[in-house]
Specification:
The chain is of the alpha/beta class. It contains 12 helices and 9 strands.
Length: about 280
């Protein structure tokens, strides 16, 4: 395994290697089994795999959230080293990625960006798209791997690649969960023991919502979700919505299109999201 802090060194060696297929797994570190699954898939499909570890400042609209984001580079490197030697890690300083201007590029994602996470985290997806495009331009992968837990992000990146005509194939990978159903997330490490014991209720509630659709309207399900979380004051529900997968627009009735149920909530100061096919 090789670790690079500067893109020039990485690309100089990459150009000598002339790998026909390069898989990129972009991360912000605090690696868990979900990330490792992405890396393993990339390893199975590419001659070279690059894992980027970079906490991107432009996608945080809350500076406390940026400051508190888990930083575990040493343990991350140990986890990757245990997988296979054919992994390169790009762990740059901010200046190596953004030079002198730590700002987001402006994109037009239309309705994909205006709902759910986009509505609650202004500017978030502009920052995400900016860093992803920079990583694509710096590292020039042939494939890039993203988890479906951040499903809206996945759709934004798919749109980005199409808009900017970037020659990379986006590979969507299923959500990886703990045994109790909680979707794996780097933010889970910020949960207290008490909050961690409560957290599986997120997935349980989504499963219940799916079961309810057989005999209830979407409006009735939304009312049930709201009432349910009102009875749990330790949890602050931000949104629950059922939306089309392609457009991410809320549906009021099921019309045969592929849909997902999306949820975001806070346990104390920790914000968690999840989704399931609906």
């Amino acid at each position: 395994m090789k670790v690079f802090n500067h893109s020039k060194e990485l690309n100089a060696l990459k150009n000598k290697l002339s790998a026909k297929s390069i898989g990129l797994v972009p991360t912000m570190g605090a690696l868990h089994k979900g990330h490792i699954t992405l890396v393993e898939k990339a390893l199975s499909e590419n001659e070279l795999v690059i894992v980027s570890i970079f906490i991107n400042p432009t996608q945080f609209n809350n500076q406390d959230d940026l400051k508190n984001y888990p930083k575990t580079l040493e343990s991350d490197l140990l986890k990757l080293k245990a997988l296979e030697n054919n992994i390169w890690v790009y762990a740059p300083e901010v200046s190596d990625v953004y030079s002198n201007s730590v700002t987001s590029k402006e994109y037009s994602f239309g309705l994909l960006e205006s709902t759910m996470e986009g509505a609650h985290r202004k500017g978030h997806f502009q920052g995400v798209a900016t860093i992803v495009q920079k990583l694509f331009e710096i590292l020039k992968p042939t494939k890039a791997y993203f988890g479906e837990k951040d499903f809206q992000q996945l759709q934004i990146i798919t749109s980005l690649v199409k808009q900017e005509q970037i020659p990379v194939k986006i590979i969507a990978c299923p959500i990886i969960r703990h045994e109790d159903g909680l979707a794996m997330s780097s933010r889970n490490t910020n949960l207290s023991d008490k909050q961690r014991a409560i957290a599986p209720i997120i997935y349980e509630t989504l499963q219940k919502a799916v079961a309810l659709k057989e005999e209830n309207s979407l409006e009735q399900i939304e009312i049930w979700i709201t009432d349910f979380f009102n009875k749990h004051p330790e949890i602050e529900l931000e949104y629950f919505t059922v939306a089309e997968e392609k457009t991410l627009q809320k549906v009021n009735h099921l019309n045969g299109e592929k849909t997902r149920a999306f949820i975001a909530l806070k346990l104390g100061d920790v914000r968690l999201i999840d989704n399931v096919k609906f």
